[in-house]
Amino acid sequence: MESMTLSHDDAPVPAKGRPREFCTDTALAAALRVFWSKGYEGASLADLTEAMGITRPSLYAAFGNKEALFNKALDLYEAEKLAYVRQALDQPTARGVAETILRGALALQTGQSGDPKGCLGVISAMPCGAEADSIKAHVSARRASSHAALIERFDRAKAEGDLPPHVDATGLTCCLYALLQGMAVQAGSGASRTDLERLVDTSLTIWPSR
């Protein structure tokens, strides 16, 4: 809520504050790259403020604390970097869904656009410090939402005859997520694009539908 002052006739008027001297969108994009490179726990406030080009008080004033900043960065990551997941759900076949997700993740995790390698969600969900417990819970909650959407899509594929009746939609989704998480860990560890392409191609050859 905006702070208020009183005029001579006691009518409330907005207080004049100093305008921000930085672009919040640019600063948030810089913070995203730090979190993506180092994970939540590994990104210090000094790392963040240096990359964002702002002071610590300015960070708090514009974004809140470190956890709030991370959540905003995660929103940006999902909106800009994970658009392929939303596109995948609209594919006409279950195999098309899987291929769109796997190849989208491949392009993202191998840093073809100059972005850091690996997956922000996986990197930030792996730390074991108590400070990161709420972050892990938040990342897991977001993952659960997309997990449920994929299960629903694969159940529809079964109903449409696109997937065999014996296929477990939940198990298939878990398998796909295991592949994605494995790709993210390998990409973050320096695996080449060729190696990860081979993993994607092999996974698609054993997919239970055409």
From TrEMBL:
DNA-binding region: 44-63
Keyword field contains Transcription regulation: yes
Family matches, as SUPFAM superfamilies: Homeodomain-like, Tetracyclin repressor-like, C-terminal domain
Domain HTH tetR-type: 21-81
Keyword annotations of the record: DNA-binding, Transcription, Transcription regulation
Pfam annotation, one family: TetR_N
Protein name, per record: TetR/AcrR family transcriptional regulator
Source species: Sphingomonas kyungheensis
Lineage of producing organism: Bacteria, Pseudomonadati, Pseudomonadota, Alphaproteobacteria, Sphingomonadales
